[in-house]
Design a protein that fits this description.
The protein is α+β, with helices and mostly antiparallel strands and 81 residues long. It is built from two helices and four strands.
Length: 81
């Protein structure tokens, strides 16, 4: 019983992250050496379906981390920590 619950919760959390879309948004914004870190619970608005954490090198050469927030009709928003 508990295994089914744990598997279901894990599937829901993994489904709330979109690594491909986040990578495209970050590449378009000029970020390099992008590492997708997975689902981030905090950092996005209530209307965002996907919350994808990342680490990358910004345009100025500084290492940054943050979250890419997105939804079907909204597109993607990059938020830095």
């Amino acid at each position: 019983m508990y295994r089914i619950l744990i598997v279901s919760i894990t599937a829901l959390i993994v489904g709330c992250s979109s690594g491909d879309e986040a990578s495209r948004a970050l590449n378009s914004a000029g970020y390099k050496q992008i590492t997708i870190t997975g689902y981030r619970f905090f950092g996005c608005g209530k209307d965002d379906r996907w919350h994808t954490g990342f680490e990358a090198v910004g345009q100025n050469g500084q290492r940054v981390s943050g979250v890419v927030c997105s939804d079907v009709f909204k597109g993607a928003t990059i938020r830095l920590d």
